């Protein structure tokens, strides 16, 4: 597995991540969602550099130009619900991509402990395709792992790109150990040092789904 930190060297991406973290700016859900989308566009641009391209003649009003066009069939998938704006940002650049969605959530017990549950999957045939799986926060890595295993029922992709804006160091290490020999690339914008007792990333941003769409019961 390969790990790519797209904010090295530092770019304007750092400003968008800073706004997502800032407690004063987080009160504006529209701005939070828009930053998720913009960061998705940056991820898509960086991922596009890894694709296979073929020279293709394009007819213009004055002649013929040769342009390099991507060859892979892409499938953009996301983990609901915070993954939706990030998904849309990626899709803005890959407009011919197919789409998939996975519902993965933490189910807590009376002691405050949780398991990850998968309740909904919608995806096309993935066989031989390039899959991009978006989840804004990579905390423990469990939800990303289970979502990956769930969509594998739809076929074996040629390559999978995991996209997370903010990851914890333990989460990165967990995913690296789980997919050591797999054709997988993990893309991140920031890696934070630790998780707290509730497995939230510290310093992190809080609950990305609530910040994007409001608190849930």
Describe this structure in words.
The protein has 217 residues and is α/β, with parallel strands linked by helices. The protein has one domain: Rossmann fold. The chain contains six helices and twelve strands. The strands form three sheets. Strands 1, 4, 5, 6, 7, 8, 9 and 10 form an eight-stranded mixed β-sheet that branches. A two-stranded antiparallel sheet has the order 2-3. Strand 4, helix 3 and strand 5 form a beta-alpha-beta unit. Helix 1 packs antiparallel against helix 2 and helix 2 packs across helix 3. The protein is globular. The model has no long low-confidence stretch (mean pLDDT 94).
Report Rg: 18 Å
| Biggest pleated-sheet summary | 8 strands, mixed
What is the distance, rounded to the nearest whole angstrom, between the alpha carbons of the first and last residues?
37 Å
How many domains? The number is 1
Q: Residue share in helices?
A: 25-40%
User: Which term fits the overall shape?
Assistant: globular
- CATH architecture name: 3-Layer(aba) Sandwich
CATH class: Alpha Beta
Summarize the model shown.
With about 220 residues, the protein is α/β, with parallel strands linked by helices. It has helices at about 15-20, 30-50, 85-95, 140-150, 170-180, 210-215, and strands spanning about 1-5, 55-60, 65-70, 75-80, 100-110, 115-120, 130-135, 135-140, 160-170, 185-190, 195, 200. The model has no long low-confidence stretch (mean pLDDT about 95).
């Amino acid at each position: 597995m390969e790990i790519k930190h797209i904010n090295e060297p530092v770019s304007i991406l750092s400003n968008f991540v800073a706004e997502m973290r800032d407690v004063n700016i987080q009160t504006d859900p529209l701005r939070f969602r828009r930053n998720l989308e913009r960061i998705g566009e940056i991820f898509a641009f960086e991922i596009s550099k890894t694709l296979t391209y073929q020279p293709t003649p394009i007819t213009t009003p004055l002649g013929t130009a040769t342009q390099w066009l991507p060859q892979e069939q892409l499938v953009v998938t996301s983990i609901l619900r915070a993954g939706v704006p990030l998904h849309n940002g990626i899709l803005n650049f890959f407009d011919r991509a197919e789409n998939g969605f996975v519902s993965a959530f933490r189910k807590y017990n009376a002691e405050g402990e949780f398991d990850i549950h998968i309740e909904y999957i919608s995806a096309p045939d993935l066989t031989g395709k390039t899959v991009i799986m978006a989840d804004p926060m990579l905390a423990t890595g469990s939800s990303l792992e289970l979502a990956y295993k769930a969509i594998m029922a739809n076929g074996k992709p040629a390559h999978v790109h995991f996209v997370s804006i903010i990851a914890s160091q333990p989460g990165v290490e967990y995913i690296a150990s789980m997919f050591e020999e797999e054709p997988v690339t993990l893309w991140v914008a920031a890696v934070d040092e630790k998780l707290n007792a509730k497995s939230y990333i510290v310093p992190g941003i809080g609950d990305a789904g609530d910040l994007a769409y409001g608190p849930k019961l």
